[in-house]
Amino acid sequence: MKREKLEKLKKKPMDKNTDRIALSRNYYNKLSRFFDYISPDSYYRKARKAAVSSLDLQEGQTVLNVPVGTGQIFKYFQGYLHGTGQIIGVDLSEDMLSEAFEKIASNGYSNISLEERDVAEINTAWLEDFRKNNPDTQIDAILCDLGLSGFEDWEQVIQNFLSVLKPEGRLVVMDWELPEPSLRGEFIKWIGGGEVDRPIPSYLSTQLEQFEVDHSFNRGGVFVASGIKPSGMGS
Ligand SMILES: C[S@@+](CC[C@H](N)C(=O)[O-])C[C@H]1O[C@@H](n2cnc3c(N)ncnc32)[C@H](O)[C@@H]1O
Q1: With CB atoms counted within 10 Å of each terminal CB, which end of the chain scores lower, N or C?
Q2: What's the pTM value of the predicted model, to 2 decimals?
Q3: Ligand 1, from 73, 91, 191: best to mutate by most atoms within 8 Å of Cβ?
Q4: Separation of CA 67 and ligand 1 centre (Å)
Q5: Tens of pLDDT along the chain (235 residues)?
Q6: Can you list the positions of beta strands (E) in the chain?
């Protein structure tokens, strides 16, 4: 390595979070072209159907989806929205978003917007900013699918989701939970880069009203948890 390059690297402060985010972005950028083959929609179909049904979406409503990935979920949302309202898809990887954009273009969807950002930026400041171009937008529902098992500070991410959700809006989470160490768990961690033993449903049960969880998907490995933001919390 050249001397100047080494000096630059030494000077650059090491930020563990920034490094993890860069690694994750690179990983999914590389995977993006093969993602729909490696992780086909058919594998998660039952869980996705249940998750989107739990959102209780009505025509004209706004749903926030993080991480949107390649947009496999779009057709499920459209089954309820029928092209009305808005779907806001957020993801860290520009190449995963390009794949999602292909689905938008090929299906002629006009109610979907995509944003390239870290989930940590989804907070009240983000919503305020979003409302500058989309006045009066309220987030009626949030779906976080296959995200929280990999996100840093996942409890804070849930708090941020609740801060942007309208009072009594629905938060739905679909993810892996394999609390006991297993070969299957190691494989899922290896493919997705996340953790499979985070107590996500149990934490959600303390934060949401009308909490429900179904652990019956993908041979008991995948759960769909849902509930309502307590009415006392502002948006
Ligand atoms: C396993 S994929 C799931 C995508 C989609 N929800 C699905 O079910 O197909 C995980 C996604 O999380 C995104 N991601 C990882 N870290 C992120 C972060 N900090 N902020 C936003 N998105 C992130 C990746 O780019 C990738 O698209």
Answers
A1: N
A2: 0.92
A3: 91
A4: 4
A5: 344 544 543 444 445 567 889 999 999 999 999 999 999 999 999 999 999 999 999 999 999 999 999 999 999 999 999 999 999 999 999 999 999 999 999 999 999 999 999 999 999 999 999 999 999 999 999 999 999 999 999 999 999 999 999 999 999 999 999 999 999 999 998 888 889 999 999 999 999 999 999 999 999 999 999 999 998 776 6
A6: 62-65, 86-91, 112-116, 139-145, 165-176, 209-217, 222-228
Q: 74-99 in b/e burial notation, b at 16+ Cβ within 10 A?
A: bebbbebbeeebbbbbbbbbebbbeb
**Residue 130, both tokens:** 């979003």
- Round to whole Å and give the CA distance between 103 and 101: 5
Handedness of CA 77, 81, 120, 134 (dihedral sign): positive
Give the CATH superfamily of 3-228: Vaccinia Virus protein VP39 (3.40.50.150)
SS3 49: helix
Per the CB < 8 A criterion, the answer to whether 118 and 22 are in contact is no
**Buried-state track 195-217, b at ≥16 Cβ within 10 A, e below 16:** bbebebbebbeebbeeeebbeeb
Mutate to test the pocket of ligand 1, among 15, 26, 28, 223 (most ligand atoms within 8 A of CB): 28
Contact, 185 vs 140, CB < 8 A?
no
Q: How far is CA 84 from CA 49, 99, 112, 174, in A?
A: 19, 22, 10, 24
Ligand 1, closest atom to CA 192? 1
Residue 183 has a CB neighbour count (10 Å cut-off) of 7
Task: Please tell me the predicted confidence (pLDDT) of residue 235.
Answer: 63
